[in-house]
Design goal:
By secondary structure, this protein is mainly alpha-helical. The protein has one domain. It contains 14 helices and no strands.
Protein backbone atom coordinates (compact mmCIF):
# COMPACT_ATOMS: atom_id res chain seq x y z
CA UNK A 1 0.00 0.00 0.00
CA UNK A 2 2.81 2.42 0.94
CA UNK A 3 4.70 1.66 -2.27
CA UNK A 4 1.61 2.27 -4.43
CA UNK A 5 1.01 5.59 -2.68
CA UNK A 6 4.63 6.61 -3.22
CA UNK A 7 4.32 5.73 -6.90
CA UNK A 8 1.10 7.74 -7.13
CA UNK A 9 2.84 10.75 -5.56
CA UNK A 10 5.64 10.46 -8.11
CA UNK A 11 3.13 10.29 -10.96
CA UNK A 12 1.26 13.37 -9.73
CA UNK A 13 4.56 15.22 -9.37
CA UNK A 14 5.69 14.33 -12.89
CA UNK A 15 2.30 15.37 -14.28
CA UNK A 16 2.42 18.88 -12.82
CA UNK A 17 6.07 19.30 -13.78
CA UNK A 18 5.19 18.43 -17.37
CA UNK A 19 2.26 20.87 -17.32
CA UNK A 20 4.44 23.60 -15.84
CA UNK A 21 7.03 23.05 -18.57
CA UNK A 22 4.33 23.09 -21.28
CA UNK A 23 4.24 26.90 -21.34
CA UNK A 24 7.96 27.04 -22.09
CA UNK A 25 7.77 24.31 -24.74
CA UNK A 26 4.89 26.15 -26.42
CA UNK A 27 6.89 29.40 -26.52
CA UNK A 28 9.80 27.57 -28.15
CA UNK A 29 7.56 25.92 -30.77
CA UNK A 30 5.84 29.24 -31.56
CA UNK A 31 9.16 30.64 -32.73
CA UNK A 32 8.86 28.41 -35.79
CA UNK A 33 5.17 27.67 -36.43
CA UNK A 34 1.73 29.16 -35.79
CA UNK A 35 -0.49 28.40 -32.77
CA UNK A 36 -2.80 26.35 -35.05
CA UNK A 37 0.06 24.03 -36.02
CA UNK A 38 1.25 23.62 -32.43
CA UNK A 39 -2.24 22.68 -31.22
CA UNK A 40 -2.92 20.29 -34.12
CA UNK A 41 0.35 18.36 -33.80
CA UNK A 42 0.23 18.32 -30.00
CA UNK A 43 -3.22 16.79 -29.75
CA UNK A 44 -2.68 14.40 -32.62
CA UNK A 45 0.06 12.83 -30.50
CA UNK A 46 -1.95 13.12 -27.28
CA UNK A 47 -5.05 11.50 -28.79
CA UNK A 48 -3.05 8.50 -29.99
CA UNK A 49 -1.44 7.97 -26.57
CA UNK A 50 -4.69 8.38 -24.62
CA UNK A 51 -6.43 6.08 -27.11
CA UNK A 52 -3.85 3.36 -26.50
CA UNK A 53 -4.23 3.80 -22.72
CA UNK A 54 -8.02 3.59 -23.04
CA UNK A 55 -7.88 0.34 -25.00
CA UNK A 56 -5.27 -1.14 -22.66
CA UNK A 57 -7.64 -0.54 -19.74
CA UNK A 58 -10.58 -2.10 -21.55
CA UNK A 59 -12.52 1.19 -21.61
CA UNK A 60 -13.06 1.32 -25.36
CA UNK A 61 -16.84 0.93 -25.39
CA UNK A 62 -18.51 3.35 -27.81
CA UNK A 63 -20.58 6.05 -26.03
CA UNK A 64 -24.20 6.74 -26.92
CA UNK A 65 -24.93 9.37 -29.63
CA UNK A 66 -26.10 11.84 -26.97
CA UNK A 67 -22.86 11.33 -25.07
CA UNK A 68 -20.80 11.77 -28.22
CA UNK A 69 -22.48 15.11 -28.84
CA UNK A 70 -21.65 16.18 -25.30
CA UNK A 71 -18.04 15.05 -25.70
CA UNK A 72 -17.86 17.03 -28.93
CA UNK A 73 -18.98 20.17 -27.08
CA UNK A 74 -16.41 19.56 -24.36
CA UNK A 75 -13.75 18.93 -27.00
CA UNK A 76 -14.41 22.26 -28.68
CA UNK A 77 -14.43 24.19 -25.40
CA UNK A 78 -11.63 22.38 -23.58
CA UNK A 79 -9.27 21.56 -26.44
CA UNK A 80 -9.87 23.55 -29.63
CA UNK A 81 -10.86 26.93 -28.19
CA UNK A 82 -8.88 26.65 -24.96
CA UNK A 83 -5.62 25.67 -26.59
CA UNK A 84 -6.06 28.29 -29.31
CA UNK A 85 -6.44 30.93 -26.59
CA UNK A 86 -3.34 29.77 -24.73
CA UNK A 87 -1.12 29.22 -27.76
CA UNK A 88 -2.12 32.52 -29.35
CA UNK A 89 -1.75 34.26 -26.01
CA UNK A 90 1.77 32.92 -25.58
CA UNK A 91 2.85 34.67 -28.78
CA UNK A 92 3.00 37.92 -26.78
CA UNK A 93 2.60 36.83 -23.14
CA UNK A 94 5.55 35.61 -21.10
CA UNK A 95 5.48 31.94 -20.10
CA UNK A 96 5.91 32.84 -16.42
CA UNK A 97 3.05 35.38 -16.49
CA UNK A 98 0.87 32.84 -18.27
CA UNK A 99 1.48 30.22 -15.60
CA UNK A 100 0.48 32.58 -12.78
CA UNK A 101 -2.71 33.65 -14.59
CA UNK A 102 -3.68 30.04 -15.36
CA UNK A 103 -3.23 29.22 -11.68
CA UNK A 104 -6.32 31.35 -10.95
CA UNK A 105 -8.63 28.85 -12.68
CA UNK A 106 -10.06 27.48 -9.38
CA UNK A 107 -11.12 31.06 -8.57
CA UNK A 108 -13.31 31.14 -11.66
CA UNK A 109 -14.62 27.63 -10.97
CA UNK A 110 -15.74 28.85 -7.54
CA UNK A 111 -17.31 32.01 -8.96
CA UNK A 112 -19.19 30.14 -11.68
CA UNK A 113 -20.33 27.51 -9.19
CA UNK A 114 -21.61 30.25 -6.90
CA UNK A 115 -23.32 32.20 -9.69
CA UNK A 116 -24.93 29.38 -11.66
CA UNK A 117 -24.98 26.31 -9.42
CA UNK A 118 -25.80 28.12 -6.17
CA UNK A 119 -22.78 26.52 -4.51
CA UNK A 120 -21.57 27.95 -1.23
CA UNK A 121 -18.78 30.53 -1.21
CA UNK A 122 -17.80 31.56 2.30
CA UNK A 123 -15.89 34.52 3.67
CA UNK A 124 -12.58 32.73 3.12
CA UNK A 125 -13.52 32.26 -0.51
CA UNK A 126 -14.32 35.93 -0.98
CA UNK A 127 -11.01 36.88 0.64
CA UNK A 128 -9.21 34.41 -1.62
CA UNK A 129 -10.80 35.92 -4.73
CA UNK A 130 -9.78 39.43 -3.68
CA UNK A 131 -6.20 38.31 -2.98
CA UNK A 132 -5.89 36.37 -6.23
CA UNK A 133 -7.23 39.34 -8.22
CA UNK A 134 -4.66 41.63 -6.62
CA UNK A 135 -1.95 39.05 -7.34
CA UNK A 136 -2.87 38.87 -11.03
CA UNK A 137 -2.81 42.67 -11.33
CA UNK A 138 0.59 42.71 -9.66
CA UNK A 139 1.96 40.06 -12.03
CA UNK A 140 0.52 41.53 -15.23
CA UNK A 141 1.59 45.09 -14.37
CA UNK A 142 5.02 43.81 -13.27
CA UNK A 143 4.62 45.67 -10.00
CA UNK A 144 3.71 49.07 -11.45
CA UNK A 145 0.08 49.34 -10.33
CA UNK A 146 -0.05 52.97 -11.46
CA UNK A 147 -0.44 51.58 -15.01
CA UNK A 148 -3.90 50.31 -14.07
CA UNK A 149 -5.31 53.81 -14.12
CA UNK A 150 -3.77 54.46 -17.53
CA UNK A 151 -4.99 51.20 -19.04
CA UNK A 152 -1.48 50.46 -20.29
CA UNK A 153 -0.65 47.27 -18.46
CA UNK A 154 -0.29 43.75 -19.80
CA UNK A 155 0.01 42.40 -23.33
CA UNK A 156 -2.80 41.21 -25.63
CA UNK A 157 -1.67 37.71 -24.82
CA UNK A 158 -2.18 38.25 -21.10
CA UNK A 159 -5.85 38.96 -21.69
CA UNK A 160 -6.24 35.89 -23.92
CA UNK A 161 -4.68 33.77 -21.17
CA UNK A 162 -7.10 35.26 -18.64
CA UNK A 163 -10.01 34.34 -20.93
CA UNK A 164 -8.56 30.82 -21.17
CA UNK A 165 -8.67 30.53 -17.37
CA UNK A 166 -12.37 31.43 -17.41
CA UNK A 167 -12.94 29.07 -20.33
CA UNK A 168 -11.26 26.19 -18.48
CA UNK A 169 -13.47 26.86 -15.49
CA UNK A 170 -16.52 26.52 -17.74
CA UNK A 171 -15.10 23.29 -19.18
CA UNK A 172 -14.37 21.90 -15.70
CA UNK A 173 -17.91 22.54 -14.48
CA UNK A 174 -19.44 21.03 -17.63
CA UNK A 175 -17.17 17.98 -17.28
CA UNK A 176 -18.11 17.13 -13.70
CA UNK A 177 -21.33 15.25 -14.47
CA UNK A 178 -19.79 13.06 -17.17
CA UNK A 179 -16.67 12.30 -15.12
CA UNK A 180 -18.96 10.75 -12.50
CA UNK A 181 -20.52 8.35 -15.02
CA UNK A 182 -17.70 7.58 -17.47
CA UNK A 183 -14.24 6.01 -17.06
CA UNK A 184 -11.75 8.91 -17.10
CA UNK A 185 -9.59 7.63 -19.97
CA UNK A 186 -12.56 6.96 -22.26
CA UNK A 187 -14.03 10.40 -21.67
CA UNK A 188 -10.63 12.05 -22.06
CA UNK A 189 -10.01 10.23 -25.33
CA UNK A 190 -13.26 11.32 -26.96
CA UNK A 191 -12.97 14.89 -25.69
CA UNK A 192 -9.39 15.13 -26.94
CA UNK A 193 -10.19 13.43 -30.24
CA UNK A 194 -13.09 15.79 -30.95
CA UNK A 195 -10.94 18.74 -29.96
CA UNK A 196 -8.23 17.62 -32.38
CA UNK A 197 -10.78 17.12 -35.18
CA UNK A 198 -12.15 20.63 -34.69
CA UNK A 199 -8.63 22.08 -34.58
CA UNK A 200 -7.98 20.43 -37.95
CA UNK A 201 -10.20 23.05 -39.58
CA UNK A 202 -7.98 25.89 -38.35
CA UNK A 203 -4.86 23.90 -39.20
CA UNK A 204 -5.78 23.27 -42.84
CA UNK A 205 -7.29 26.72 -43.42
CA UNK A 206 -4.05 28.31 -42.25
CA UNK A 207 -0.61 27.49 -43.58
CA UNK A 208 -0.24 24.69 -41.03
CA UNK A 209 0.47 21.91 -43.50
CA UNK A 210 3.30 23.88 -45.06
CA UNK A 211 4.69 25.08 -41.74
CA UNK A 212 5.59 21.58 -40.59
CA UNK A 213 8.60 21.54 -42.91
CA UNK A 214 9.91 24.64 -41.11
CA UNK A 215 10.28 22.83 -37.80
CA UNK A 216 13.86 22.41 -36.62
CA UNK A 217 15.01 19.80 -34.12
CA UNK A 218 14.26 22.09 -31.12
CA UNK A 219 10.82 22.77 -32.60
CA UNK A 220 10.03 19.08 -33.01
CA UNK A 221 11.36 18.32 -29.53
CA UNK A 222 9.09 21.01 -28.07
CA UNK A 223 6.00 19.75 -29.89
CA UNK A 224 6.90 16.15 -29.10
CA UNK A 225 7.18 17.05 -25.44
CA UNK A 226 3.80 18.80 -25.54
CA UNK A 227 2.07 15.93 -27.31
CA UNK A 228 3.68 12.90 -25.72
CA UNK A 229 4.27 14.08 -22.17
CA UNK A 230 1.88 17.01 -21.54
CA UNK A 231 -1.18 15.78 -23.48
CA UNK A 232 -0.44 12.07 -23.15
CA UNK A 233 1.46 10.69 -20.18
CA UNK A 234 0.70 13.59 -17.82
CA UNK A 235 -3.04 12.88 -17.98
CA UNK A 236 -2.47 9.15 -17.50
CA UNK A 237 -0.23 9.83 -14.50
CA UNK A 238 -2.73 12.32 -13.06
CA UNK A 239 -5.73 10.01 -13.22
CA UNK A 240 -3.65 7.08 -11.92
CA UNK A 241 -2.77 9.23 -8.89
CA UNK A 242 -6.43 10.17 -8.41
CA UNK A 243 -7.30 6.47 -8.13
CA UNK A 244 -5.02 6.11 -5.08
CA UNK A 245 -4.75 9.51 -3.40
CA UNK A 246 -7.77 11.62 -2.32
CA UNK A 247 -8.65 14.40 -4.78
CA UNK A 248 -7.99 17.15 -2.24
CA UNK A 249 -4.45 15.87 -1.68
CA UNK A 250 -3.67 15.40 -5.36
CA UNK A 251 -4.98 18.89 -6.08
CA UNK A 252 -2.29 20.33 -3.80
CA UNK A 253 0.34 19.24 -6.33
CA UNK A 254 -1.05 21.80 -8.80
CA UNK A 255 0.57 24.57 -6.73
CA UNK A 256 3.90 23.31 -8.07
CA UNK A 257 2.93 23.96 -11.71
CA UNK A 258 3.45 27.75 -11.90
CA UNK A 259 6.64 27.54 -9.84
CA UNK A 260 8.10 25.08 -12.35
CA UNK A 261 7.04 27.34 -15.22
CA UNK A 262 8.63 30.45 -13.70
CA UNK A 263 11.94 28.71 -13.01
CA UNK A 264 12.16 27.07 -16.43
CA UNK A 265 11.16 30.31 -18.18
CA UNK A 266 14.04 32.07 -16.46
CA UNK A 267 16.56 29.38 -17.40
CA UNK A 268 15.41 28.49 -20.93
CA UNK A 269 13.72 31.68 -22.18
CA UNK A 270 15.72 34.23 -20.15
CA UNK A 271 12.53 35.72 -18.75
CA UNK A 272 13.34 37.98 -15.78
CA UNK A 273 12.59 36.84 -12.25
CA UNK A 274 10.92 40.04 -11.06
CA UNK A 275 10.26 40.41 -7.34
CA UNK A 276 6.82 41.89 -8.07
CA UNK A 277 5.88 38.87 -10.22
CA UNK A 278 7.08 36.41 -7.59
CA UNK A 279 5.20 38.30 -4.87
CA UNK A 280 2.08 38.43 -7.05
CA UNK A 281 2.41 34.71 -7.73
CA UNK A 282 2.59 33.90 -4.02
CA UNK A 283 -0.49 36.07 -3.40
CA UNK A 284 -2.33 34.23 -6.20
CA UNK A 285 -1.49 30.83 -4.68
CA UNK A 286 -2.60 31.97 -1.22
CA UNK A 287 -5.86 33.24 -2.72
CA UNK A 288 -6.45 29.98 -4.58
CA UNK A 289 -5.70 28.00 -1.41
CA UNK A 290 -8.27 30.03 0.54
CA UNK A 291 -10.89 29.52 -2.18
CA UNK A 292 -10.23 25.78 -2.31
CA UNK A 293 -10.41 25.58 1.48
CA UNK A 294 -13.74 27.44 1.51
CA UNK A 295 -15.29 26.01 -1.63
CA UNK A 296 -13.70 22.57 -2.02
CA UNK A 297 -13.50 22.88 -5.84
CA UNK A 298 -11.67 20.43 -8.04
CA UNK A 299 -9.53 21.63 -10.90
CA UNK A 300 -9.16 19.55 -14.03
CA UNK A 301 -5.79 20.79 -15.23
CA UNK A 302 -4.87 22.15 -18.63
Amino acid sequence: MASSRTFAILQATFAVVFWGASFIATKVALREVSPETVVWLRFLMGTVIIGIAMLARGEGALPLPRELAYFALLGFIGITFHQWLQSTGLVTAQASTTAWIVATTPIFIALLGWLFLKEHLGKLGVLGIVLATFGVLLVVSQGDLSLLGLGEFGTPGDFLILISAVNWAVFSILSRRELQTHPAMRMLFYVMAFGWIFSSGLFFISAGLWEISNLSLPGWLSIGFLGIFCSGFAYIFWYNALNIIPTSQVGAFLYIEPIVAVLLAAVILDEPLLLASLLGGVIILVGVWLVNRSYGSEKITS
